[in-house]
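Appendix C: a fully annotated inverse folding record. The material below is reproduced so that readers can follow the format used throughout the book. The structure is listed first as tokens, followed by the designed sequence.
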């Protein structure tokens, strides 16, 4: 039962993270084409760093709690990078 909840939440979280990645790419593309300035781009992207950090950390912790070691170890480097990026965020 716990496995199903973890994997459904992981699926929903991965969908949200993919959406955020597409949003980041579109915003950076707008910056490259000079549709927006750098300050506006940073303000749009910085507000999504902490929610991305929280979402990925929750999934990683749930995988650890539910004893899915292999998937946890696959997620650990990305979670570590997100924590590093979130700790250096000027938000």
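Designed amino acids, in order:
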């Amino acid at each position: 039962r716990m496995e199903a909840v973890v994997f459904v939440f992981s699926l929903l979280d991965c969908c949200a993270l993919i959406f955020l990645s597409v949003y980041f790419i579109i915003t950076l593309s707008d910056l490259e084409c000079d549709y927006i300035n750098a300050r506006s781009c940073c303000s749009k992207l910085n507000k999504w760093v902490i929610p991305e950090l929280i979402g990925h950390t929750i999934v990683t912790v749930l995988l650890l709690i539910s004893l899915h070691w292999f998937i946890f170890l696959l997620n650990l480097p990305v979670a570590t990078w997100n924590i590093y990026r979130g700790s250096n965020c000027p938000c």
